[in-house]
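dude i think i finally got it to work??
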Amino acid sequence: MTDSPDPELLVSALPRPEISQEFNWRNCWYPIIFVRDLPQKRPYGFSLYDEPLVLFRDAHGKFGCLQDICPHRTAKLSQGQVVDGKLECLYHGWQFSANGKCVHIPQLSAGSKIPHNACVKSFAVTEKQGIVWMWPGNAQAADEKMIPVLAELDDPKFIKTDYLLDLPYDQSYFIENVIDPAHIPINHHGKRFKREDAQALEMEVIDVSSQGIRGRYRNQQTNEPWIVLEFIAPNLVRYAVWKEQGLFAGAELYSIPTGKGKCKILLRNYNSVLPWVKKLQPVWIEHCFRHILLEGDAEIIREQQMQIERLGKSMKELFLPLKTSDVLVIEYRKWLDKYGTDLPFYQGYATSNLNGILQSLDIGDRFTRHTQICNSCNRAHQISNRVKHSLVVTAIILAAIAMITENYQARVFVVTLFILSLTIAFAAHKVKILLERNYVRQYITTEK
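look at this
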């Protein structure tokens, strides 16, 4: 049996971010949406640090990203439509190209020139590995080499599953949550995990810079391989699981700070085990499992954030961290203390400017936070709804036919179809509900 690879070598094999002495939140790339979930024939509105933005494709399929405001009378361009590759404001029909230039105003008289200031601020935008990225800083400085791509995602032996979700808490709380493996056996007990597996973890911080954090962890009581993780500022947590033959599986967890007290996540899992199973499994089924995990955390994290604001104290004053579970979490919060002051809002370990969110956190439902913005789940929801209604109508018709049918065998056949229709309609209803309602935690009870 060959020796396991040296974890230090595994870490150094990962692409390292460029080291700098400062972190500028505008001069970096932000993931916006998976290309497959982007609306095909209409604009897509989103926000970054509470700044409304809009994304669309021009006539050549090129992406355009603009401020979501019409210079005419401040209507939202995301409520408009795409006409011949131009973004048209639905209020008065002003049209804009992908670079923000106004190219048509219906109300101008013949021969009149479009005002030079009738334009919208534009941002650099591109696509990499199935994700749309935007650069909020100076477009001339946008360097696509700074996008944190992963070579394995282009390798056909790795099967990836993409998932997106709106969350009712600050981006930093999501990052804290996903670099905290200690909570998984407890909070996700019964969902492929067991609370009995909770144990002390061996954790190490390998490297810290303005561009992020590198660390690793493993169970102290077993001889499992190290799990390597990276926080790549400002929005990516990368997990990698290594076996003797090399990279085995991993996850890319992107988070977009859409506003104060809320964020959107793009989750991409990949592995090289039984790829045919992943190909056969409907995407919405995998998404339902992701819902259970993230919704199981959401209420706790939301309340945690509200508690910290209500108490008016820093995390350093409130937390009681352990070396065997919280090393990476505390290191990330300290990173925000040192480099996060440039962010529009942040929550560090000892410092913070994140306040005023107590009234803004609404957990919402699964349909709003995921289904209506996920191409696969939205399609499954529409199909299940149509199947349900069609078969209910069919069952009513079959019931009427059964009542007037005198032939015994024919009646049995019709009744069988009636029962089958109701059964499938009920199953379709359950799928529809599954795509709409949040996970409800089943609390553990101990019988004496």
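The radius of gyration is 26 Å.
im so relieved honestly
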